[in-house]
Amino acid sequence: MPKKVVRVEADPASQAAEPTWKPTPEAKQQANRLRIIAVVLWMVAIAGEAFAIFWVLKQSAVNLVLLIVAIVVIGVLSIVGSLLWKRANQADPASTSDHVRFFIQNQLGAIIAAIAFLPLIVMVLLNQNMDGKQKGIAGGLAVVVLAVAAFAGASFNSPSVQQYDAETNQVVQYTGRDLVFWTKDGSVFHLCQEASAVNLSSKDNTIYSGSVGDAHAAGKERLTLQVDQERKQCGYATPTPGNS
Could you give the CA distance from residue 60 to residue 197 in angstroms, rounded to a whole number? Predict the structure, then answer.
């Protein structure tokens, strides 16, 4: 008697392709180091905010110069921390599949800027030991620095594991290997060292090469948009056989 054949349908959700890209140990280490430095800078910035609120603004005669210096220092620390944090996210990005973590990890710099300045701005405006002119100067400066720090901390084109995975697959499809090229000045990476954009003059007159992950860890945002042009320049007019 012939056996019965039963087809088992897999859950469509389980069939969704998961990204395979992962940062190299070196990139992960670099990202961790940058994040630690960023967190330390942010903690010092918030400590500076506490100093301004609980000491400078508590004086019977508020030292406006000291308050201004505190606002500027808090802003510099916040901005530098945010830039380092964003650089870490380029080396070790979050996955878009975890929406909450993806948002927080990429917008943490802007969140920290708000934490570091909003309470201080409120306390300046409510301070009874400052006249209207002093409040206008200190409060206005704090608002401007907050805006700059929040802009520096916000990520408008956030990197993701999915982006890096797609870029790696695209590069491998065109070239047969995970190897790209970039210069110190550029913001994107390219398919080969013969690409015209790579051979433009740069500060150190050097072409760097590595994986897609290495390029991102070096601060490059994405693959060039001139892919079709570079495929011809590099001799990759058609996808590598077997990878189309």
Answer: 61
